[in-house]
Design goal:
Number of domains: 1
Structural class: alpha/beta
CATH architecture: 3-Layer(aba) Sandwich
Number of helices: 6
Strand order of the largest sheet: 2-1-3-4-5
């Protein structure tokens, strides 16, 4: 599954995530996209009640997304760079998902994760690190690609001009499918 953390529907981040999902589908797997722009995911308030209840007390669209993350074999997190960092939407999701995962016994352990970042000019490496650090903290496995899974673009659609970036993201998605099959003993 790909979770798009951009507040813009149909923007460069969604275009790039769609390319990743197309590449995965070419390998014969089911894919799904979640657009946080269509959802309400409030930030974590660090109440830590999830440690006791094993549930998040905040009522919004988070629980449905979290449940789908738990069901997925692979999770792609995609975000544009906002002031040198991931968007507040994607950070709210991973902060809450991380806490709840730990409260439920590390539910993302050994899943495959991949990050996608779209930048206009800079901040891309730090932003990609934010996504990858979430995966690593959760005990997930992050495959490589042919380069960092970053593409550049400002105006809607510009990202497709970054052919290397698009190909790098597609390659990552194919590696994710390959790795998931290895982990599950399918190939």
């Amino acid at each position: 599954m790909a979770i798009v953390g951009s507040p813009r529907i149909g923007g460069n981040t969604e275009i790039l995530a769609s390319e990743a999902l197309k590449a995965a589908a070419e390998e014969g797997v089911e894919t799904e996209m979640v657009r946080l722009a269509e959802k309400e995911v409030k930030p974590c308030d660090a109440c830590l009640s999830c440690r006791v209840t094993r549930d998040c007390r905040i009522r919004d669209d988070f629980q449905g997304i979290f449940d789908r993350m738990v069901e997925a074999d692979g999770i792609i997190l995609a975000t544009p760079v906002y002031f040198g960092s991931a968007t507040p939407q994607i950070m709210a999701l991973i902060d809450r998902a991380g806490y709840l995962s730990m409260a439920r016994g590390r539910v993302f352990e050994n899943k495959v994760g991949g990050g996608i970042v779209v930048a206009r000019r800079a901040g891309q490496n730090f932003t990609l690190a934010q996504l990858i650090f979430f995966f690593l903290h959760q005990g997930m496995i992050v495959p490589g690609s042919t380069y960092w899974t970053i593409a550049f673009g400002r105006e809607k659609g510009d990202v497709v001009k970054d052919v290397e970036g698009v190909n790098t993201v597609r390659n990552m998605a194919k590696k994710m499918v390959w790795l998931i099959r290895k982990i599950k003993g399918i190939d």
